[in-house]
Amino acid sequence: MIEKALSAAIRRLCAGGALLGAGVLALPAQAQSPAEGAQPMQKVEIVGTSIRQRLASQTALPISTIRAEDFAKQGLSTVQEVLATIPMNQTSVGSSQSVGSGTGGRAEANLRGLGSDKTLVLLNGRRLANHPFFADTVDLNIIPVAALERVEVLRDGASAIYGSDAIGGVINFVTKRSYRGMEVSVEAHEPAGSGGGDEQRINFTGGWGDLGTDGYNLLGIVDFHRQSTLMATDRDFARTGVRPERGLYQTSGTTFPANFFSDEGIAGNPSYASGCRPPYSIPNQSGAPNCRFDSTQFVDLIPLTKQETFLGRFSKKIGAEHTATLEYLHSRSTNEAHVAPPPLAGIGLTMSNTSPFYPGAGITPAVAGLTGEPLDVSWRPLVTGKREGLDVSLTDRLLAGMEGTAGGWDYNLGLSYAVGRARSAFTNGYVVDARIIEGVGNGLLNPFGEQTPAGNDYLRQSLLQGEYLRAKIKSGAIDFKASRELMTLPAGALGFALGGEFRRDEADYRVNRELASQASSSGYADAQDQSGSRNIGAVFTELNIPVIKDLEVNLAARYDDYTDFGHSFNPKVALRWQPSKQVLLRGSFNKGFRAPTLYDLHGPQTTTNTGNPWNDPVLCPGGKAVPGANPNISCDQQQNIRGGGNPEVKPERSRTYSAGVVLEPTTNLTLTADYWDIRLKDQISALAEESIFGEYQKYQNLYFYNAARTRLDYVLAITQNLGEVKTRGVDLGMLWRLQRDQLGNFTLGVEGTYVDRYDYQNERNGPFTVNAGRFADASPVFRWRHTATLGWTRGPVNMTLSNRYLSGYDDQPDAEGVVPGRVGHYSTWALAGTYTANQKVSVTAGVKNLLDDDPPFTVQSTTFQQGYDPRYTDPLGRTFYVRATYKF
Prior knowledge:
Belongs to the TonB-dependent receptor family. By secondary structure, the chain is mainly beta.
């Protein structure tokens, strides 16, 4: 009932000229009053308030709404793609970031660039279980795209309404509530460039019964999506980490043929004199007589992904005023990613002069200065193949709800139970360290050249396969809210709402130590099992006060109590003033918080490689190894970094101001501007590796060496409370409707976000780092982002031309702080057309990245992919797609 009313309201608003997609609020002057003969408008429930509104537009908070039919026509096949069109969503983290980083392939939203953990994601106004890995955000892959009716984005803090995580904003995915009939949709996406990355999707929707006439509705939706692997070597701009003419030289010191270091202090590589073995192994450009390895050529730009989702809902009318609902959501996502063969360095891989492969023994070329002393070897056995990992994520949620009207109150009651499970497994390329140490030690394996048949057989038997990590997160909750008009004041009705929530969260992390401990390259070799739980109770209230005609004040407050860290009280005040039919002014102030997740507190500590190669500041200061230090592991090498949970972490706190104006000088033109200012303190994060290695004197307590201080075991970067974040900017929107009866109807819409400031501290009371318009530590913040859309409709044909633009920024500085250059802007165009043949058949076809523009070049080294930044750009290039829907 609520969603039917809202859909009708949206249709009226769009016909009257409101730009919901850019967060422009429609002006009440456009709606008929009852005195003019219109029927009383039904109340609807929208994101950001617990009081049911007369129109989704009548709110003091900026809201963007994207209709499912619109993003389907534009060929946006995943939730991640949909959110990438929202300018205030700074990053588009998805499956590409799973390559080498253990994210499980999840997709994330990140409003205002504050982090995905500060963007609250809801499904029909209620929380979902977070992804078990890191437990800080919902995996967008579990959202059933085919079931969506619309996506609502609240571009303001909302902890006073929803509690934790709503600092950057709220994204509410609203599904169809009542559907009758059956339909099937099939779509395919094919890049024009060679390689992979093609996508296929098929979904089925069936609905039986009508709530209004039959008193019930049964809805079922099944969705399947698949995207194939795209390798780095399939795109010229990303195929290598070695482009010295552009300042890019991302290589590893663990290579094939292997580098060595002797007890007498001699370092080298037997193949160096002959030029190493390109294209993977190349001479060290620093002049050292060893080789470097271009690992970029082995990674995926896009891994193989599959998602299967089912949503079932049964709704039943109970009398005239009540509706009971039972809903079940199941989602399964798999992610198969590849990185370079295993780096075996610093694990005690030693060759003696009894090996037939010792340099100068007859097979391997001699190296001057060696006198038969043992060699410490740094080696990648290429014949074992790429390391391949499989991540499987599953989500199940059961929801029982009741809503309706009783005693003059509009109420909504829900009981839910959600379980998120994830597991990771070695499927190829990982090797048992102990067997490799034994094989090199006894002279069976050749780290400097080709293997004998016996060596190849030995390596095949040394492969490590199986599940090494399993995680589960459970969340059970009961919630209620009720609202009504308490009284009628001279200026209008006084709206009131109250509600409460009780939730129990549990997290459990299990490491297969017998398996994981055998491979140092897994990152989980010394990880321990961890678990944690908490109870959460909350009460909240909201009051909407009409002060004078056309001026309303909205007050809200929420009190949350957590059994593991304490309580939090968060108020909000918002104003809405419409001095004329053409002008609407709005503003708000609110406080927010983010509770540390169970992973922040209890996540297992793991030791992995840094994203960048670094010089050990103690053993290789200035790039020159000190006497006795092995340059193959101390100089220009990926170092070990240890991260994980910290039970001492405290909550983040925030305050947000916003102020905006909506102008509608004519019925065909709507303009908006919303200023926002956010201040966050005690941010929860791990210290960036760039900071740890860039300021040794400051962070030397985070360096842990072996007893002899000849090797850096790891740097410590566990989760902790850092300093403040200050950011501000403005959201701008425009919708211009040009109606031409003979030529068709035209619409031009632009939605953009300008970030004036983004500064942060890496520690309390420390200096602020400027991030807006430049790459700082781990990522850039774009000054300007926009999405522009030109639409044309005539009869059964709809055409859309759209542009997505991200401004340029200063590139990632080198170890000395020197900025190598400017990263260019990223602008892509898309063209789509839909033909609706009749009520049963419609076909959409289009082209993404119409001009086939490559992503701008960058030297960033935060991700495994090189030459561009996969967090903000698309490596596919021009891509054709077609989508057909048949209803029966």
